[in-house]
Amino acid sequence: xxxxxxxxxxxxxxxxxxxxxxxxxxxxxxxxxxxxxxxxxxxxxxxxxxxxxxxxxxxxxxxxxxxxxxxxxxxxxxxxxxxxxxxxxxxxxxxxxxxxxxxxxxxxxxxxxxxxxxxxxxxxxxxxxxxxxxxxxxxxxxxxxxxxxxxxxxxxxxxxxxxxxxxxxxxxxxxxxxxxxxxxxxxxxxxxxxxxxxxxxxxxxxxxxxxxxxxxxxxxxxxxxxxxxxxxxxxxxxxxxxxxxxxxxxxxxxxxxxxxxxxxxxxxxxxxxxxxxxxxxxxxxxxxxxxxxxxxxxxxxxxxxxxxxxxxxxxxxxxxxxxxxxxxxxxxxxxxxxxxxxxxxxxxxxxxxxxxxxxxxxxxxxxxxxxxxxxxxxxxxxxxxxxxxxxxxxxxxxxxxxxxxxxxxxxxxxxxxxxxxxxxxxxxxxxxxxxxxxxxxxxxxxxxxxxxxxxxxxxxxxxxxxxxxxxxxxxxxxxxxxxxxxxxxxxxxxxxxxxxxxxxxxxxxxxxxxxxxxxxxxxxxxxxxxxxxxxxxxxxxxxxxxxxxxxxxxxxxxxxxxxxxxxxxxxxxxxxxxxxxxxxxxxxxxxxxxxxxxxxxxxxxxxxx
Length: 609
Ligand SMILES: [Cu+2]
Prior knowledge:
Blueprint: H1 2-25, E1 30-41, E2 47-51, E3 62-65, E4 69-77, H2 81-84, H3 89-95, E5 99-102, E6 127-133, E7 140-146, E8 157-163, H4 165-178, E9 187-188, E10 205-215, H5 220-228, E11 241-244, E12 253-255, E13 262-269, E14 276-280, E15 285-290, E16 293-300, E17 302-305, E18 310-316, E19 323-331, E20 336-344, H6 380-386, E21 394-403, H7 406-412, E22 416-419, H8 424-429, E23 432-433, E24 440-447, E25 453-457, E26 462-467, H9 483-498, E27 504-505, E28 507-510, E29 515-521, E30 526-532, H10 535-539, E31 543-548, E32 550-551, E33 558-559, H11 586-608
Parallel strand pairs: 1-4, 3-8, 10-13, 12-20, 21-24, 23-31
Antiparallel strand pairs: 1-2, 4-6, 5-7, 7-8, 9-16, 10-11, 13-18, 14-17, 14-19, 15-16, 15-18, 19-20, 21-22, 24-29, 25-28, 25-30, 26-27, 26-29, 30-31, 32-33
Helix pairs in contact: 1-11
The structure holds copper (II) ion.
Transmembrane segments: 590-608
Pfam family, one: Cu-oxidase_2
InterPro entries: Cu-oxidase-like_N (IPR011707), Cu-oxidase_2nd (IPR001117), Cu-oxidase_C (IPR011706), Cu-oxidase_fam (IPR045087), Cu_oxidase_CS (IPR033138), Cu_oxidase_Cu_BS (IPR002355), Cupredoxin (IPR008972), CuRO_2_Fet3-like (IPR044130)
């Protein structure tokens, strides 16, 4: 009798193990989609770019899993035929396009979406296929956006969520670790050693996407052409408003389900320029993700996002949480544009009379403009994935400033940003060559101007080894003294003494008259951008291109990369729509089955004898 019972248990355990294995060996799903990109007008005649007729300045949300394949066809109808035919570089830029998948790393250079660098530009009436498989290690919150002219602020953008088991488990473990905690305190969350992940009810956690973006009343193209790129044009046009989830309106609501105990928010700054501040009145924000990197849960009260940055935050609701006020501040030249939205349960009474202008963003609890690069520590597995070692193989220095002298104006017909005395378009023609692939490099970025800029790295995540808070000046590897140098040395000591890992991400604010030290490991050959994500600034030259060489066949000697082969702009034959097939590697399954059977039988034999 005992024997039969044990056999039943054995068979059941075996089934469980096998089920998991088969699931894990499944090939990803193939998603085929088409983006028809065209210009539309808002009711008050503001021209914007719409994807597939969407009525807002965001296209459809793409939600896939790690390992899935995307076949995305983009059809460009941004301009009229007449506009596209204009013999004018600014018009040509706006009428052609290419799509960048922001933060999706690793992704081959040919899918990075940089017109005339990683792909041919998609002209008026032309189509282009983006066909790639998302790496198994890529997971989290991302976005896609145009990388031509100032199109994305006009609407050529959207959210890309890549789901995976590690992310879900991390959410569940964090929920389990804070579920019995009465009062959450800012700082690192103490995680339970053994987490009862399986026992958690999925419905308890309600996921919402919160996109934050600045907004300009006038058509971006006009602002660019008539103001920013004019002879007397400044660097930052006046910002007119802020969008939450694409909406200009204030006091909008997001419904909470009646059984929601936790909110899981994916917060994204997908704007053109303004740093965004995010706060929930009376609630702590447990940060779980920085730009596609899972981190040790860290609690803050107010979140600050540079353009391009994404965070996942978990919010533990209280029994009486029927109404939660969301406060958003969009940073403009002087001060903030302030908005409030509401999360609410059906039976809640909304106090819409509360005025967001009463809120002083700078007085929000925990408000800071400083990046938390010492606190937002990646999970160990994430650090391992990147494989960044303690010392760099080489260090590069990039110094940027804004030039509006007569000579610059004569040459570029407007003031320009330059990095090491060259503009972005000059780097497009002649990238900085990094010596080798599979090496660790430090990039020192020095701000010689007084403004804050959100820098974004293509094709790589970076570790933030050191970062100034603003005003301490530049870091020069040959000078080795001064405030910035002392801060840098202090950070190096900190990492050595604590054994902690610096924050890892792909976008970061660098303060004015300051510096950053970003560490990367070159893994993918190609030409990659490192640029300010304020589109106006990029149009005025603020970015560089660096080239990672491909290893030669013997794996050591670097060779110069050849131009990428583009067969055609027409639909790729591999992109034919077909139903999803879940391939199961039968021989592997059988082999594992036999091994498990043998192990279990052995264990039972040992137990019973
Ligand atoms: Cu900038």
